[in-house]
Amino acid sequence: MPSRARQHPRPASCPLLPARTGCRAQRARGFAPVALILLAACALMAESAQAESPMLVDDAATSGRGKGNLEATGFDDGSHRGMAASLAYGLGETLELQLALAASHTHGRGADTRVAHGGIGLKWVPWQTDAGLSAGLLLQQYTLRPDGKEDSDDERGRTVDLLLSWQQPEGPLLHLNLGHGWTHTAGVAEDAARWGLGLDLPLSEASSLTLERFGQTHAWPGYQVGLRHLVSEALKLYGAAGRNDGAAIWNLGLSWEF
């Protein structure tokens, strides 16, 4: 199975589960799409796929020593809309460094603030297999800085995620993320448990369909459906759309592997 790890750190504006408010009653209804994804994973078999952008759910794999990926992405995470650039580079066979920068503006009723974002991540996946279960950890730290605001108004956060991936022989990839996030804004600290489930289904040698469901404490679960197309051996185009905590989200971009 080829290297699967090219799911890089979302810009700080696009953490896996950014929303902090919502309705807990929605969680029970959120498990139905999860069950459908699991049924699809058992029913569909095709060629090997890679879990990478446009997925928000991460995969348990690394790029490999000396290999990497550059991405340029336009996005809307429900509260920020903008452009991002990210880099992932393999420091070793099981260790990957991730960097992301973005510029966006907030949107919504009465909101129009420009925001700069920066993020750094370290992915360690000591257990990687060609078929069956792979497992690792992802540590990320980010900062959101509103334009014209004092440093004390910055949002600073960090996340820790357990990454699990299951590769079916000659089939799709199933991914599970379980983690926790901490944020600190203007003297107010918050934390939340979070989860994500994703399925990467190859449609042909060049195209894949992605399905995701994710959620966190005190927020409505979200979902996203995406497509990825291989233009050349190194260049991919991708896009996805869905909803998170009741707001529409999307991303559209390209990635270059080196």
CATH architecture: Beta Barrel
How large is the share of residues in beta strands? Answer: over 45%
Q: What's the CATH C level?
A: Mainly Beta
H/E order of the elements? HEEEEEEEEEEEE
Q: How would you describe the shape? A: globular
What's the Cα radius of gyration? 17 Å
Structural class: mainly beta
CATH superfamily: monomeric porin ompg
Number of domains: 1
Low-pLDDT windows of residues: 1-50
Report on the structure:
By secondary structure, this protein is mainly β. It contains 1 helix and 12 strands, in the order H-E-E-E-E-E-E-E-E-E-E-E-E. The chain has a 12-stranded antiparallel beta barrel. It is globular, with a radius of gyration of 17 Å.
Provide keyphrases for this structure:
258 residues; mainly beta; Porin; globular
Q: What's the quick description here?
A:
By secondary structure, this protein is mainly beta. It is 7% helix and 55% strand. The two termini are 18 Å apart.
Task: Set out the fold topology.
Elements: H1 26-43, E1 68-76, E2 80-90, E3 95-106, E4 114-127, E5 132-146, E6 155-167, E7 173-185, E8 188-202, E9 207-216, E10 222-230, E11 235-244, E12 247-257
Antiparallel strand pairs: 1-2, 1-12, 2-3, 3-4, 4-5, 5-6, 6-7, 7-8, 8-9, 9-10, 10-11, 11-12
